[in-house]
Amino acid sequence: MFIKGIGRTKFGALNEEAPALLYSAILGAVRDARIGPDDIGACIVSNFIGAQLENRAHMNSLIPCLLPGFDKPCIRVESACASGGAALWTATKMLGEFDNILVVGVEKMSAAKSSAVTGALASAGDVESEQRQGVVFPAAYALMASEYFARYGRSPADLARVALKSHHNANLNPLAHFYHKTVRLQDIENSPVVCSPLRLLDCSPISDGAAALVLSRARAGPRDVRILSCEMATDVIALSQRPDLTSSRVSRTAAKRAFDAAGIGRDDVDLAQVHDCFTINELISLESMGFCEPGAAPQLDTSLGGPLPVNTDGGLKADGHPIGASGIAQLTKLVLQLRQEAGARQVRDARIGLAHNIGGSGGSAVVSILKGGPDV
Ligand code: COA
After folding, report:
1. Axis-axis angle for helices 83-94, 323-338 (nearest 10)
2. Are 318 and 279 in contact (CB under 8 A)?
3. Which of 5, 158, 171, 267 is the most exposed place for a label (fewest CB within 10 A)?
4. 114 CA from centroid of ligand 1 (Å)
5. Tens digit of pLDDT for each residue in 58-98?
6. Segment 258-297, tens digit of pLDDT
7. Which residue from 113, 204, 280 has its CB within 8 A of the most atoms of ligand 1, so it is best to mutate?
């Protein structure tokens, strides 16, 4: 299985509505793949809260409006913030039936009030033990951060360094939500508390955007990147049912499956896109996927020039987090890197990349491993 084409919009508070965002990402991916709409056998659309925020639920049926005459199977896939990863996973299972599948994700969030967005996002959590108790997402991840600090003697300074790196990388990515926003360590440490210990600059923003991929059964040329593996796992939805908030069981399981299926080890990975909806989650996820011991992620060098560059384009934190698009955008970033086309944020000699996409506070996760280069 190969990724033949990629497309994405800028992320941020944008003027365009969901259909225009979808169109722009699809056009980019189809042109990049050098195919026409007739070559697409099926389409998977990823979206999370279009129904709540825009009263737009039947998004798969938008595709024929954007690609006139298109009448192939289109389905919508939803798995909260892992919707993009789940759409990709679904496409990999369907690829035996089709030569090319279009996978596209979109979310339009900025037109709604923050309170409405926060409420809609909270629908990814447990109703009884979380939503009815006011445990919205910043609160859920704040609980994880507090427990992580207590267990491993870590502090907000460890989170601030994650945010600093992400904002640095986003400044190299013209499509990022926070491209052109200068963020210094003291800006992070003095930003308003959202839910203690998490501050504003520990949070991913409310973004609009879309991203698309063309998946193909056969390799057509050296720019096509091989999907070594794409694996999904699920876990109980409520934090109160999990034995340990300082590690992510669903990430551990999905990563183990993905590494086993790819037949490679953690040391083989040249770069990773890790689901950093809140800074604490980048640390917990790296540990859970086996890149270091529990509690040791703050010591990893994840900068662009380091041994394991993480979130090279700014991550969800600073590139942006238009939920349905985020997991697909992670793959577009890896493909650029593995084609050696990532410009100022290019990781030298990148051959193998990993994408990690989590739903909610860890109820679902998808880990994908890609390989690029002439001999894949
Ligand atoms: N990081 C950095 N800056 C941010 C930001 C973020 N996450 N969110 C907002 N800002 C900035 C805005 O750009 C704006 O800056 P300006 O005054 O220079 O223009 C300022 O902060 C105020 O923005 P506003 O939109 O009013 O913020 P808000 O208070 O409505 O929302 C959060 C802030 C943190 C509550 C919101 O971004 C949020 O809910 N994030 C988490 C989203 C989430 O849970 N996603 C799912 C994860 S599982």
Report:
1. 60
2. no
3. 267
4. 8
5. 999 999 999 999 999 999 999 999 999 999 999 999 999 99
6. 999 999 999 999 999 999 999 999 999 999 999 999 999 9
7. 204
CA 344, 345, 346: angle at the middle one, nearest 5?
95
Distance of CA 351 to the CA centre of its chain: 20
122 ligand 1 Cβ < 6 A = no
Q: Say which DSSP state 376 is in.
A: -
Please give the distance, rounded to the nearest whole angstrom, from the Cα atom of residue 307 to the centre of ligand 1: 31
CA 57 to centroid of ligand 1, rounded, Å: 25
> Are 317 and 311 a contacting pair, CB within 8 Å?
yes
Contact 337, 354 (CB under 8 A): no
CB 339 within 8 A of CB 372: yes
Residue owning the nearest CA to atom 27 of ligand 1: 114
Cβ 179 under 6 angstroms from ligand 1: no
What's the whole-model pTM score? 0.97
- The atom number, within ligand 1, closest to the CA of 278 reads 47
98 near 42, Cβ under 8 Å? yes
DSSP type of residue 2? E
Q: What is the CATH number of domain 2-112+207-216?
A: 3.40.47.10
- In the numeric block, which tokens belong to residue 324? 């349905």
3-state SS class at 208 = strand
- The amino acid that residue 72 corresponds to is K
Task: Identify the residue whose tokens are 């973004």.
Answer: 207
Q: Is 114 in the pocket of ligand 1 (CB under 6 A)?
A: yes
